[in-house]
Amino acid sequence: MTEQGAGVAAMNSEDNPQRWCSINLVGVPAGLISSAEFNAYPQKLSIAGVQQTHRGLFQLLAGAQDMNQAAEIFRHYMEIVFGLAPPTPEMRGAERRRYRSSYIKLLEGWGFDANSPQGAVLKGWVESRFGLIPTYHKAELKHFPSPAWVGYLEAKLSSRFHNNSIHAQLDLLYEYCQWVVARFEQPGGECMKLWRGINCHGEQMIVEGSLRAGECVVRLNNLVSFTRVRAHAEEFGDWILEAQVPAAKLLFFPGLLPHAPLNGEGEVLALGGLYRVKASYV
User: Fold this and answer.
1) I need a labelling partner for 28 at 20 to 30 A (CA). Which of 37, 175, 203, 259 fits?
2) What are phi and psi of 130, to 5 degrees?
């Protein structure tokens, strides 16, 4: 059996997590969201109840004149609702030292290492909201159970990052990102051209075609980093994947939140799944 045939057979095995029946909170089947067809014909996604629960935030955002003003409204709202403001001189003792998990710290941790505990929490959030099963965390997440899966489950459920409604914070970040895209037509259109550099197939599985053919379908992790600048992608691998990423799959893009982590290298965080990509060797 060829390497590609073996990969397809593994994907179809009964104990493969990618075959699990997943529920989600966006009302669109996970299988459709993760498909290459969704990327070609995207539709809007919205996490159930988030905008209704935080109606006040979106009423305030409606009055924003530009992205900077909207970002300031969002930052201030998150500080108040989730207690994310820096400690003040008036705070003392335990209250001043209390650790509160935050979406900013998760983005920062992802920027250092997508396989960090913060990365596991982010992947777990995607899994619970969109039904997309991760394919990689420190090792390939293939058959279940396995040591790799146990490690991922322990990391994503770490109490250190779940002491402050962290999933609710990420829900708001996603809904805010989608609001910005719709209101200010950022980053532009239904899809944006992005690049990703790879050195091997560790986090990707070729489903159709081949890298050497110049075009193929790859299965990316449930949350994945891209960049808006091709030259930056070349710093992370010998093979460059060019993909059209739907705006509906964006969680973070440069400029969404001034001074936030990931802005420096033009990094974009997006939902993964199957992508039809153009591949080139540097």
Assistant:
1) 203
2) -115, -5
Number of compact structural domains in the chain: 1
Q: What is the mean pLDDT of the chain?
A: 88
124 phi and psi, to 5 degrees? -65, -35
Question: CA-to-CA distance for 178 and 185, rounded, in angstroms?
Answer: 10
Residue 5's pLDDT is 45
Closest to 206 (Cα-Cα) out of 276, 265, 270:
276
Cα separations in angstroms, 43 against 26, 142, 160, 187, 249:
11, 29, 35, 16, 10
In sequence order, the β-bridge partners of residue 267 are: 227
Instruction: Using DSSP bridges, classify how beta strands 205-210 and 250-252 pair: parallel, antiparallel or unpaired.
Output: unpaired
What is the Cα–Cα distance from 7 to 140, expressed in whole angstroms?
13
DSSP 88: P
The model's confidence at residue 2, banded by pLDDT at 50, 70 and 90, is very low
Residue 64: other Cβ atoms inside 10 A: 18
